[in-house]
Design brief:
The complex is a heterodimer of chains A (204) and B (162). Chain A has 204 residues and is α+β, with helices and mostly antiparallel strands. In chain A, 44% of the residues lie in helices and 28% in strands. In chain A, strands 1, 2, 3, 4, 5, 6, 7 and 8 form an eight-stranded antiparallel β-sheet that branches. In chain B, β4 and β5 (42-48) form a beta hairpin. The longest helix of chain B is centred in the C-terminal third of the chain and has 15 residues, at 109-123. Classes of the chains: A alpha+beta (204), B alpha+beta (162).
């Protein structure tokens, strides 16, 4: 099925998938940092490759990206993109330092961030698993600190093999009123989002 | 220089006559293929995502692949007056943004993109006069018609011209 054939009902179902997954991950994050974490209504982004770069406030914005392949009954990627400042705060809280202390990227802080990615994506995917009854697991996390465009292009390239559009289920996390923590991107491949819709009875 | 700046997105290509600047932002594993006709100062830039079109199911967008992308860009540039004999190439990108230890098959796509690009350019007898490829970091590139210089901007690895 072509992405352009998705109707508004399908999009609502995909948005709900984002809601449930990210909701679970937000709870996990709130526990981890002992702070209230809000999330925005998930956005389903269906776009051409030339637009991918513009997501996340510009292609050159430096971010921390934690990418995991999704395994099991569906395949694709799950990407957690953290604002650098938020990554800094997060690591400091986890390591019992002052929240605004300057963080150094080293083996310890990087592996702390990976672990955060691991915990959050696992909660996201386990919620999906419960919802759909499908077996969905994350692979080992990989981390990169770089330009948002370069990081977002990685799952896009996988789409490139079969289509000219990508589908991102994006959910933004916010702490307090407006401090953006980061964004979750679930990027199921073409067969997988059809399977997700199908399992939830949304394909007829 | 403020005028005629053309952005080239992912899986996209474009060219311009002098004066002009072609820009592509946040190259990861993709490769920026910068072609320059030094005689008449026509520059072209392709931002390819994947190595070979025959390995893909959907090849509607030619700018997506190294082989069809180079072919299409060459065609456009020669139609605009560039001569194959005067064209030289500079390459940037082809990084591996994430190092996976898992079972992903995405490994080395950057390297494969660079290899395919070079193989195709060789078929056209276009020399690669400089490159900044590989590594594990993203690049923004700006390509100037003035002298064919290619600026490469990174986070943490500075700015350089090739």
């Amino acid at each position: 099925m072509d992405l352009s054939l998705l109707n508004s009902f399908h999009l609502d179902v995909l948005r709900e998938i984002g809601n449930i997954g990210a909701g679970n991950a937000a709870t996990a994050l709130a526990k981890l940092i002992n702070k209230k974490v809000e999330m925005k209504v998930p956005q389903i982004r269906i776009m051409g490759f030339s637009e991918v770069n513009e997501v996340l406030g510009g292609a050159e914005t430096p971010v921390v990206g934690i990418l995991l392949a999704v395994l099991g009954d569906i395949s694709g990627y799950i990407l957690f993109v953290l604002e650098q400042r938020a990554a800094n705060t997060l690591v400091n809280i986890l390591m019992s330092k002052k929240p605004d202390e300057e963080m150094e990227y080293n083996e310890i802080t990087l592996s702390a961030l990976k672990e955060v990615g691991n915990i959050l994506t696992s909660s996201y995917l386990s919620a999906l698993s419960v919802l759909t009854g499908l077996n969905i697991k994350p692979d080992v996390p990989a981390l990169a600190i770089d330009m948002a465009g370069a990081i977002l292009s990685v799952p896009a390239i996988e789409f490139g093999k079969t289509t000219d559009t990508v589908l991102y289920i994006e959910t933004e996390f916010i702490e307090g009123k407006d401090r953006v923590i980061g964004d979750f991107f679930l990027v199921p491949d073409t067969e997988s989002y059809i399977r997700l819709l199908d399992t939830l009875g949304a394909m007829c | 220089m403020a005028d005629n700046i053309i952005k080239v997105g992912m899986a996209d290509l474009n060219y311009t006559r002098h004066p002009g600047v072609l820009v592509t932002l946040g190259l990861g594993s993709c490769v920026g293929i910068a072609l320059y006709d030094k005689k008449i100062k026509i520059i072209g830039l392709a931002h390819i995502m994947l190595p070979w079109s025959h390995q893909a199911k959907n090849i509607a967008n030619k700018a997506k692949f190294a082989d069809t992308g180079i072919m299409l860009l060459m065609q456009k540039m020669t139609e605009a007056g560039a001569s194959v004999n005067n064209i030289v190439a500079k390459l940037a990108g082809g990084a591996q943004m994430f190092s996976f230890t898992g079972s992903s098959d995405m490994i080395r796509v950057g390297q494969r993109n660079v290899e395919a690009t070079k193989a195709v350019l060789q078929q056209f007898h276009i020399p690669v006069i400089s490159e900044d490829t590989g590594g594990s970091y993203g690049r923004t590139i700006e390509f100037y018609s003035e002298d064919g210089r290619l600026m490469i901007k990174t986070i943490g690895y500075g700015i350089k011209y090739i």
